[in-house]
Amino acid sequence: MRVLGIETSCDETGVAIYDSERGLLSDLLYSQVAMHAEYGGVVPELASRDHVRKLLPLIREAMQQADTTREQIDGIAYTAGPGLVGALLVGAAIGRSLAWGWNLPAVGVHHLEGHLLAPMLEENPPPFPFIALLVSGGHTMLITVEGVGRYQIIGESLDDAVGEAFDKTAKLLDLGYPGGPALEQIATKGDGTRFRFPRPMTGRPGLDFSFSGLKTFAMNTLHANEITEQTRADIALAFQTAAVETLAIKCQRAIRETGIKQLVVAGGVSANRALRERLDRLALKERAQVAYPRLKFCTDNGAMIAYAGCLRLQAGEREPPAFEARARWPMDTVTAL
Amino acid sequence: MKLLAIDTTTEACSAALSINGAISERYEIAPRQHATLILPMIDSLLSEAGITLAQMDAIAFGRGPGAFTGVRIGVGVVQGVAFSIERPVVPVSSLAAMAHGAMAGFNATNVLAGIDARMGEVYWGAYQRSSDGGVRAVGEESVCGADETFIPETGRWIGVGTAWQSYSEVLAARCGGRLDQLHPAIFPRACDIAALGVIGFAAGEGVSADEAQPVYLRNNVARKRGDSV
Predict the structure, then answer these.
(1) CATH node for B95-183
(2) What ipTM was predicted for this assembly?
(3) Is B69's CB within 8 Å of A324's CB?
(4) Interface test with B, best of A70, A97, A171 (most B CBs within 10 A)
(5) pLDDT (tens digit, 9 = 90+) per residue, A40-94?
(6) Structural domain boundaries of chain B?
(7) CA proximity to A240, closest of A191, A202, A284
């Protein structure tokens, strides 16, 4: 089965073609990051306007790169939520209508299911069950994945997502938007002994997170010190260490509580080297395996939607000729295959 | 000439089929239900006429102005449908469609069409009946306050659209004594998009599916960092 996948839930337009026999045939991404940077954050209306300009040309290009004609496509999958409703609606409208015109089945995919299943696109996919740590600008979650559609959230952030905390702290440090990667960069020059930031919610049981306090702690530290290059680097390092340590502590707990010794890390923050090094050490200690999908599959992309959609279409899921975009969509209401 | 038309730019949702000039239509006032209604509407029109999508020569759509999300749903649907059969699309102004509907329905020749654009503004356009059965814009379509709307200096006019509900007194006053009728409950309809689409297609206004793009009129939707408030 060959499936066209469309992702437009936030500020990236992603289109991919996945074939259940031959694997990923094309995978294209248009990022709006530069446009939103001028506004200091994602502007939903502008994101929607850009998707409607970029999506159809990207679909044409993805078909061309995959050497695929319309007759060779067996179904269309698009992200139906959660995300920015206006942005989602562009992908849903084009994807659903194209499938209708081609008389093909279509399916709306849960964005986070895409992320959870993305590691399956790699050569040595992790076996079920696994614990997924999903860390991005929009999410911080620990989820047990027993199979397709069998997800249980065992921990999540009660306030800011960890990527959001990275970006907001970076903004405080004048590193622009989105500043997470820049923060990681200057942290390499930091003195790790100068400041110690708290590890939020690690002193009590449970797997939930809270990251908004770290950002505030960074602000107070910045105001209490003379602002020099070195101070900024030291704060960046202290913040990063605290965030990474907090994630690692909760991952360790999740492994011990569930007895599941396979960890998968997804989302944009999984690119952070300090996090990877820390989780590698944790895995060694816990005799667990940890897998990181390639960065391209960690951030938003069409490939994960094409893949998840393919599994669902193969299982016989079908939609009426209507489409829907959901700002919220609880993970536990996704149907199990 | 076989042409499919859709409009989802306002709280109305509609689809129409024009087959050699004969128009059939599905039309509903259905706020926030466009995504559920529009494809089944097209389906039912096609099966009633006993023809397939692939037999269409072109697809016309309401390109705005209107509610941003509604405008994009229409553009998205028309892009998907037109790309699926590789047919040209014909963008039609939602304001012009309202004017066309009013000319037919109220036997008018001059129409001031306005849609309430929220935030104290209206989407606005003035239209006259043209000899080919279509409409001709007098001046440019705009988004502005009701007290800044363009009213042509001569002629007698009728007013249509939700702008006339929200700002009837201000708008009527601007017309002086030259306002003959007022019909606020008029929305863009696919039957008018179809009629104007056929004329536009004949005039060479067809474009590729990729070029089916919204006309929002309101473009200052966000402030850049450092811009003054």
Answers:
(1) 3.30.420.40
(2) 0.97
(3) no
(4) A97
(5) 889 999 999 999 999 999 999 999 999 999 999 999 999 999 999 999 999 999 9
(6) 2-93+188-223, 95-183
(7) A191
